[in-house]
Amino acid sequence: MKKVFRSVSNWFAPFFHSIRFRLTLWFVFILALVLGVFSAFIYFIEASDLQVDSEARMQEKFAYIQNYFRGAEWQDSDLSSANMPGSATPLQKGDLIVLLNTNGMMLQNWGEKLAKSDDITSQLVNAGSQAHELNVYEQTISVINGNNQIVNRDYLFVITPILRGNLVMGYLVIGSPSDLNSQMRRLKTALILGSLAMLVVAFLGGLWLADRAMRPVATITHAARNISESDLSRRLNMRGRDELAKLAETFDDMLARLQAAFDRQRRFVADASHELRTPLTIVNLEVGRALSSRRSAAEYQRTLQVVNAEGERMARLVNDLMTLARMDAGQAILQFEYLDFSDVALEAVERMSALAEDRHVKLETGELPELPIRGDRQYLIQMISNLIENGIKYSGADKVVRVETDGTQDKATLRISDSGPGIPPEHLPHLFDRFYRVDAARSQNSDDPASPTGSGLGLSIVAWVVQAHNGNIKAESRVNEGTTFEITLPLT
Predict the structure, then answer these.
(1) How many angstroms separate the Cα of 439 from the Cα of each of 396, 479, 481, 484?
(2) What is the pLDDT of residues 182-201, one digit of tens each?
């Protein structure tokens, strides 16, 4: 029994906490309010109409019965001995007529017999003595039916004083059975039962509609459970124009971004491993060869130079990786200040002049007008230095790398051009991808320790710095003619 109860509770608990159940409850609650207001309106309107109709019929009956009490014999007779005048009775089934004296004592009773005269004498006489117009009163009284049984019935009464001159002789009370209360009870029961039936139908229909509306959510949930890091290619491909279709479309876009991010991460890890494996392999080979047998001092010096160059390459690669990791994690804090973009470019040129001289590359500057910007000096210098170094490395001896700036009303532009071999058009869209190289010749020559290191991360750092300064960067290149990088930053 406990297992059955536990299984039932395990099924109902999620159902009661589900969105479809809460939506259905809210729908039923609002419908209940509407039905309650509508039923109350119908009830009171119908009660008012029935009350007006009953009073109108009672007043008509009173006017009809009054004609039997206007004869001379009635006016001259004693109230206690007066008889119903005329041969035709004015009473219908269940009606009653009562004569009361001024003290409220019943003198005569025609029609239905009262079981307890005090039921009407104490209340109606007081009302009749104070009323100055014809009023209809409703009251439950006890009468004796044809089987001599006492039963309680609802009656409508009209009471009028009997006058002789200005003297009140007594009161004439006319009563007629009323089914107003029973009609109102039936109407109330019908409204309540009808409203409850509508609420039950609305609850079941609401559950069906909510379940149908929430099916896309279940589909999304099922897909999310089945998607893992190794399988991000699945898509919902849900059609429609409603909110859930937009949610599914957003979910598919999120999966696409996650897949691209994981692909970049895997490619990044693979490329980093490859970049680190190459210098480590070179170091192990050189050290192993040096230790295999006794070498001359020149050979040991050459081995140490190779190991030192590879160590510097690995150190720079690790530093670039750490820089990019901080940038991706949002931990790279930029210290913005007001700068002259041309002054920053000139400082980067002076910094890279020694490398250009060592590589026999002419590093020249064009026009450098004053261009006020707001940025981080160190990151901007690193950005420009990476581009200059890239031009120096691939231009070759007796070539030229040119740095110049200009500006418009709202933009500052930096151009760095080289006269190297250029880049084929199909490689330009991927220049700023991490570890991307146009060809194998763009790697470091291990036989030349003085050659500039290249990890394929420099341009990625450049692109991040430009983006962090709300700028744009583009590359234009022609094969065998050279390459130009153009950076645009907003002026202050």
Answers:
(1) 16, 14, 17, 18
(2) 888 888 999 999 999 999 99
